[in-house]
Amino acid sequence: MSSFTIPIGPQHPALPEPILLKLEVEGEYVVGVDVDISYMHRGIEKAMEYRNYIQNIYLAERICGICNVAHTVCYTLNVEKLYDKEIPPRAQYLRVIIEELNRIHSHLLWLGVAGHEIGFETLFMYVWRDRERVMDLIETITGNRVNTAYTTIGGVRRDITSDIEYKIRKTMDIVEERTKYYKSVAAAEPTIIARTKDIGILKTIDAINLCAVGPLLRASNVKNDVRADAPYAAHDEVPFNVITYPYCDVFSRILVRVDEIFECINMIRYCLDHLPKGPIRIKLPLKPPKGEAVTRVEAPRGELLHYVLSDGSEKPYRYKVRTPTLANIPSLCRMLTSSGDYIVKIADVPIAYASIDPCLCCTGRVQIVDIEKNKKWIWSWEELKEYSKKEFKKS
Amino acid sequence: MNDEEILNKLREVFKEKIIESSIPRKNIVNIVVPKEFYKEVIKFIVENFNIPHIQTITGIDMGNEIQIIAHLGRSITINVRTYIDKNNPQIDTITDIIPGASFYEREVYDLLGVNFIGHPNLKRVILPENWPKGVYPLRKEYKPEHPKPLRGV
């Protein structure tokens, strides 16, 4: 059978961020994929070379709106390594709290989006309502919902009071109870199982060889987490379990993320119980000494890497960021390509794509090109989703 | 294996091929090698220490030369560093050893103009299609234009 190419994107798939997936299809089956991620380059690495270290905190957190805390924590830890000074333990604990709150909100957001992709709108509405509680909590602690700039070079900006501590504990109880319910839904609801089981398979060996990171890797049964392997901030003192599931499919990724929410809740409780006394910030000079540093943190989407080279001036000579989504794109290509007895249908592309929790920045249309007949037509994302649901009902 | 054992093993095997080596912080190993041995060293690390993971590849414009750093490892970070001539930036690809390195090499190719010899699909990945050829934004001679205000023209 001759194959033809279906471009999905750039103005769209799954999440509102621009990526172009050029799918090579034979009939209903996807046999090859080419990815174009060039639509969101903002030149942040170059822009950082023109700003001083304090200004760069605000630039770093704007790399990603959803996992902004992971970026500020990584940035500040990285720059602090240049100074070689001890950071107050209370600040490190507060960083863990805000980071784990960020992870809870990101995983809940993803669970809602996954429900939306498979046509399970009720789950989407429920989950996003509970995510709002976490967002309110972040606002109470930091003063802002999204771009919080909570961590700064030398510590954190605000302390938590006993009043806020009480609010955190109360919200955590509610979120834990709700997440238990979502887990029971996700693990038993026939719609979810039918749309996610054995879809988007990434075998353990492929995940390791293609250097996958984060929940994607853990869902392929590899016990790997930067917080456990190379602890940063206060993670060497805060106990937690690395969640893995052996099914290697989208279902497995849902379970990993839901279970991670419970771990996050427990870590936040542990941090509140063991919060050290003392200052929350030390003052550091604007110009760090010469040197370089590499820092990795576990962002909600996986291993995030920041690299800095300082020449002794108030601006970095070179700043490099590697986000987890870039690391997972080779795995995405493998996941979307049929090989042997593993078959990928066009209808499974949206959820398989969403399962890596991509964070590029996408919305709206799919252009289908039939090379043989030389015809073009455009599908909106809604139409593609309807088509996907129809195909599913048929089988 | 801990960081010191890894460094000692590398020193023992590659001897004078390693120009410089150090452990600046716990669980970070830095080595500098000439570009001829860059691929050989990475192959040795992947095969002997059971580290099939690459974190990323960083390219830095150092003036007359470009510095390439391959960050390898899951729990211990091994930074394999090499310097290449800026006028003729060429280096062997490591995609055949670590398939996950493909996109990182394309990124360095795109932003710094380094040619990775033997890469199966060395195409533009980060910059838009209409970006002029031969202009590499992360090189120091590239100065970004300040955006002009929309009003008052």
Structural summary, described in words:
- The complex is a heterodimer of chains A (395) and B (153).
- Chain A folds into two domains: 4-40 and 330-394, no CATH class; 44-322, Cytochrome-c3 Hydrogenase, chain B (Orthogonal Bundle).
- Chain A has 14 helices and ten strands.
- Chain A is of the alpha+beta class and 395 residues long.
- In chain A, a hairpin with a 5-residue loop joins strand 7 and strand 8.
- Chain A has a three-stranded antiparallel β-sheet. Chain A has a three-stranded antiparallel β-sheet with strand order 6-7-8. A two-stranded antiparallel sheet of chain A has the order 4-5.
- Chain B is of the alpha/beta class.
- Chain B has a single domain (3-117), classed as Beta Polymerase, domain 2 (2-Layer Sandwich).
- In chain B, 22% of the residues lie in helices and 25% in strands.
- Chain B has helices at residues 3-14, 38-48, 102-112; strands at residues 20-22, 28-32, 54-61, 65-72, 77-85, 90-92, 115-117.
- Chain B has a five-stranded mixed β-sheet, with helices on one face. In chain B, strands 6-7 form a two-stranded parallel ribbon.
- In chain B, a hairpin with a 5-residue loop joins strand 1 and strand 2 (28-32).
- Chain B is elongated and about 65 Å long.
- The A-B interface holds A 36-39, 41, 43, 45-47, 50, 81, 208-212, 224, 229-230, 293-294, 296, 303, 305, 307, 309, 317-318, 320, 322, 326-327, 329-330 and B 25, 27-28, 52-56, 58, 60-61, 69, 71, 74-77, 79, 98-104, 107, 111, 124-129, 137-138, 142, 144.
What descriptive keywords fit this protein?
heterodimer; A: 395 residues; alpha+beta; Cytochrome-c3 Hydrogenase, chain B; 2 domains; three-stranded antiparallel beta sheet; 14 helices; 10 strands; 15% strand; B: 153 residues; alpha/beta; Beta Polymerase, domain 2; five-stranded mixed beta sheet; two-stranded parallel ribbon; 3 helices; elongated
The number of distinct helices of chain B, counting runs of at least 4 residues, comes to 3
CATH class division of chain B: Alpha Beta
CATH homologous superfamily (4th level) name of the largest domain in chain A: Cytochrome-c3 Hydrogenase, chain B
Q: What is CATH's topology name of the largest domain in chain A?
A: Cytochrome-c3 Hydrogenase, chain B
- Percent of residues in helices of chain B: 10-25%
How many strands appear in the DSSP assignment of chain B? 7
Distance between the termini of chain B: 64 Å
